[in-house]
Amino acid sequence: MAPLMEDEVFMAFTTYAAIVILKMSLMAPMTAFFRFSRGAFANEEDVALKPSEERKKLLRSHPDVERVRRCHQNDLENIVPFVLVGLLYALTGPELSAALLHFRVFAGSRIFHTIAYVGALPQPSRALSWMIGFLVTISMSYRVLSKVLVL
User: What sections of the protein cross the membrane (predicted)?
Assistant: First the structure.
């Protein structure tokens, strides 16, 4: 394990994996913030201590809350595959410069995707940022398969 932790590519991977996982994890408190600030809750137990009339008003959806929630769902669909494929990619021994390019571009695309999603920036900003991150994961997958394909 010690030699792996000294490998520059693996250290770069763990750095950027931690960054995007932290970004994804911060979406849950952001969703809670939007729920409380917009007064829009999804479950009855969330408003159980409120008076009956107020409960009815608070049990509703709000576009801002839904936007943040969908952004978090999109993170789960993209960051988890990146972390899994990125680990395999790092183990194939790529050049540090190529690995850093993959990791940095993916992290940047996910951060920008969140800004575009939550900030409701006009398309194609969100679509392009998603596509860039997706292509990075595909590129790393290609490298892994080209190095270890055994059928």
Answer: 12-34, 79-107, 127-145
Domain ranges across the chain? 2-148
Tell me which DSSP letter residue 51 carries. Answer: -
CA angle 11/15/18 to nearest 5° reads 135
DSSP code per residue over 89-133: HHHT---HHHHHHHHHHHHHHHHHHHHHHHTTPPTTHHHHHHHHH
According to CATH, the topology of domain 2-148 is Four Helix Bundle (Hemerythrin (Met), subunit A) (1.20.120)
Alpha carbon 5 to its chain's center: 24
| Among 83, 90, 73, residue whose Cα is nearest residue 133 | 83
pLDDT tens-digit profile, the chain (151 residues): 567 678 999 999 999 999 999 999 999 999 989 988 988 888 878 787 777 777 777 878 888 888 898 999 999 999 999 999 999 999 999 999 999 999 999 999 999 999 999 999 999 999 999 999 999 999 999 999 999 887 6
Collapsing DSSP to helix, strand or coil, 142 comes out as helix
Q: How many helices (H) and strands (E) does the chain have?
A: 7, 0
